[in-house]
Amino acid sequence: MSDPLIKLDYDGPVAILSNNRPGKHNAANDEMDQQLFAALDELRTRDDVRAVVWRGEGKSFSSGRDTTQLGVRTEDVSNLDFIERGHAGTQGFFALEAPILVALKGWVIGGSFERALLCDLRVAGESARMRLPEILHGVVPDSGGTARLFQMAGHGIAADLALTGRILDAEEALRHGVVSRVVPDDQLDETCLEMAHAIARHSAFAVKMFRRTLARMADPLVLASIQEEAITQTLVQASDDYAEMKAARAEEREPVYRRR
Fold first, then answer.
1. pLDDT tens across 240-249, in order?
2. Given CB 3.0 to 4.6 Å as the disulfide criterion, which of 124, 174, 211, 232 pairs with 128?
3. CATH architecture of residue range(s) 6-204
């Protein structure tokens, strides 16, 4: 039996969720997503879990979507149905009773970056490099991450990252409030685990009530954004410009866009 692409371990009241495709910088494919959503489902049933650490094996947290699966459908399903099914799994992050701390290192790209933004806390190793490169591939971010960036860092940073695809390093992410701490890579897992255990020692009801208050303020915008992004992404993938981008890449020429 092959190793799981998502590992779920327990350290007392703390669950440790690990991306486990290190040879591919933990690039997410359909199978990895299914295992992630299944792990979230399991965690939802565990009353004894008081905090979750989400991390990555190897050098990177996740380099985003596996590029070999970009635009590929392994079943007969519409773009909208495919996107909304992924959104249903992603919204599992909102359903956990336990807060999620994310340990970011190496590449933190695309949808994986967006999902990390949906969690409670992010700690960056010094090597962390975050980006939203979707527009470089002719599509748009579609997992609620730009709404979170808007809340954390404002309109300008959200637009800058999404429209240029540039890299956000750990120190700049700290300045903008995208991460709460930056530590050396060799201290990253230990730091997150210590933070998780500290939270686990607090009153479970007090933690629940604080997260409820924060969610009442923050989540409606993100959930509305996800619904809008499902429609937007579907329209983008059906557009003439998207078809032209793919044709131009295949023919190794500059695209000629018609804004439709």
1. 999 999 999 9
2. 124
3. Alpha-Beta Complex (3.90)
